UniProtKB/TrEMBL annotation:
Domain Thymidylate kinase-like: 13-194
Keywords: ATP-binding, Kinase, Nucleotide biosynthesis, Nucleotide-binding, Transferase
Protein name: dTMP kinase
Keyword match Ion transport: no
Biological process per Gene Ontology, one example term: dTDP biosynthetic process
Pfam families assigned: Thymidylate_kin (PF02223)
A cellular component annotation (GO) from this entry: cytosol
Source species of the chain: freshwater metagenome
Top-level EC class as recorded in UniProt: transferase
Entry keyword ATP-binding: yes
Catalytic activity: dTMP + ATP = dTDP + ADP
Length: 207
């Protein structure tokens, strides 16, 4: 696991659409000198998967096929980027990880939660974040931030996004030692300070 002595620490940002993950993950990675990556699309292969999954022109993609594509992206992501960096002692910050599959394909699409979890565990070889930061933004605020030009996931109905957010909160409640929930509605700097404080407290890292 990534918390072993001599290894880097692994931090994932999770949350619904337009919650500020990309901004805050970049801020934290810069402060830590960490490897910044994302899912889907952190690798060249993952970029192709990202284009397929998020393209509004992709129609009739079954929930199971979607889950398997995300798992394939994650397997390549861990093998190519995450595990080598952690093994070399470098911290890794990712914009989304397995928590998103559980929330989107599990709670959102209605696939069995434990099957999605086990699929991700198999894809990653058991690599799991040391800390997961959930940026919490109400659905109406997220909808306002998104605007009109939306990808395939962003264009899902409000009921889907509500189920996804509920899925994130269920995971955070089930693993309070691994997850921290941070209000994503204040300004960027205020959220960044809250993230830094949580990372310093939970992982004893100087930010």
């Amino acid at each position: 696991m990534s918390g072993s002595e001599g290894r880097g620490r692994f931090i994932a940002f999770e949350g619904g659409e337009a919650c500020g993950k990309s901004t805050q993950s970049a801020r934290l990675a810069g402060a830590l000198g960490a490897l910044l990556t994302r899912e889907p699309g952190g690798t060249t292969i993952g970029g192709q998967i990202r284009s397929l999954v998020l393209d509004p022109a992709t129609v009739d993609l079954s929930p199971r096929a979607e889950a398997l594509l995300m798992a394939a992206d994650r397997a390549q992501h861990v093998a190519e980027l995450v595990e080598p960096a952690l093994a070399a002692g470098r911290h890794v910050v990712t914009d989304r990880f397995a928590g998103s599959s559980i929330a989107y394909q599990g709670f959102g699409r209605g696939l069995p939660i434990e099957e999605i979890r086990q699929l991700s565990m198999w894809a990653t070889g058991g690599i799991w974040p040391d800390l997961i930061v959930l940026l919490d933004v109400p659905g109406d605020e997220a909808d306002r931030r998104l605007g009109a030009d939306r990808d395939r996931m962003e264009a899902e109905p409000a009921s889907f996004h509500a189920a996804v957010i509920a899925g994130f909160h269920a995971q955070a409640a089930a693993e309070p030692d691994r997850w921290v929930v941070i209000d994503g509605t204040p300004g960027i700097d205020d959220v960044a300070r809250a993230v830094s404080a949580a990372v310093a407290e939970r992982l004893q890292l100087q930010v």
